[in-house]
What we know:
Elements: E1 3-4, E2 9-14, E3 17-19, E4 24-28, E5 31-37, H1 53-64, H2 78-91, E6 105-108, E7 113-117, E8 126-127, E9 132-136, E10 144-148, H3 149-152, E11 160-165, E12 168-177, E13 188-194, E14 218-222, E15 230-233, E16 237-239, E17 245-249, E18 252-255, E19 257-262, E20 265-269, E21 288-289
Parallel strand pairs: 5-6, 16-21
Antiparallel strand pairs: 1-9, 2-4, 2-8, 3-7, 4-5, 7-9, 10-13, 11-12, 11-14, 12-13, 15-20, 16-17, 17-18, 19-20
Amino acid sequence: MIGINQFSGIVRQVNPGQRQNGDIAYLVDNKAVRIIESEEPFWRDLTTGTTGADVEAVQSFLSTEGYLEAEPSGTYDSTTAQAVTAWQSDLGVPTGDGAIQLGEIVAVDRTPLAIELGEQIQVGSQLSGGEEAMTATTGDREFVLNVTSEQARQIPADSTVEITHGEHRFEAVVDEVAESGSEGAGGLVEYSLTSPTQDRICGEYCDTLPAGEEITLRSSVIVSPPVEGVSVPAAAVRTDTDGATYVSSPDGDILVEVIGSGQGLVILEGLEEGTPVKVFASSTPGVSSDSSGPGEQ
């Protein structure tokens, strides 16, 4: 939890999801609750004459957004109050005297940040103050894969898992079975996942994930890595007595390497795309045998 509501009144606007520095999270009557990046919590009213790291955090934000020309000093002066008034005016909320009341800004460690509003923070709700207002995920995300026992038997170690969230795709690797391979709640086997690059699985897009202690994302286990190459009918591929694999083209035999097969096709390395090959009279999918080698009659 990153914020407790400090205001009484009617909730007029809610903005859950990914928020940027200075964005409004929700509106109670005419009080706009915003988030600001700060290592220090905002624990008091900020008025002219207030000094401290919390003031400096507000000034840094105002400076970054172009409201304050002076360098952050940590002292809430008249110039800071004027900058706050201009900021609030752009947000469309009452400007007042340029002071910031306790509860109007909430400190977060980074932005953009996906926030989730409390159950009572809904448009039309009557608040009295003290309600749980905002939560956000902090720290590193841990990814686990839950599958049935039957599915688990088909997942070899080090299998690749592709995780999808919106337009983003993350790649992970099956690391180990949690709880010594025992089945958890619901009879599911839980695998812990790691990044193949030793970075965070979600990389630079971790902050785009929904807030919450546990979220569910679509995933697929890639048991057999995809194979790319030139495909030919299986009946076009021959092997000689030495085990060499080749195909026959109008210009002669070409040595190739089989890197995959399925559904009557063979994926080859060593054959240029577009090269015509001879298809032998064979109804058996896969690599055929021939007593002659490449170039022999």
